């Protein structure tokens, strides 16, 4: 059997009953997010769900929130 495109780029599958499910993970970014970043995350999740989930699935949410937090701290001081 020929490998799928997903397998060719390094992906793998797990069999669940009769189905093959892809093993998908979101990379973890370790950046400190302060109070302003946390509040912005809550705002995005409540009022801008599409943007929130797009950033989350691309692995860019924590970087975005860290930048928002940095900007808010700069404005505060």
Structure description:
This protein has 77 residues and is mostly helical. The protein has one domain (5-76). It is built from 4 helices and 2 strands. It has helices spanning 5-8, 35-47, 49-58, 61-76; strands at 13-16, 19-22. A hairpin with a 2-residue loop joins strand 1 and strand 2. Helix 2 (35-47) packs across helix 4.
Instruction: Determine the strand fraction and express it as a percent band.
Output: 5-15%
Residue-averaged pLDDT, rounded? 88
What is the end-to-end distance? Answer: 62 Å
Rough outline: elongated
Q: What string gives the helices and strands in order? A: HEEHHH
- Radius of gyration (CA) equals 18 Å
Low-confidence segments:
none
Instruction: Compute the number of strand runs.
Output: 2
Strand order of the largest sheet: 1-2
Give the total of domains: 1
* Count of DSSP H/I helices: 4
Given helix and strand content, the structural type is: mainly alpha
User: Helical percent range?
Assistant: 55-70%
Biggest pleated sheet: 2 strands, antiparallel
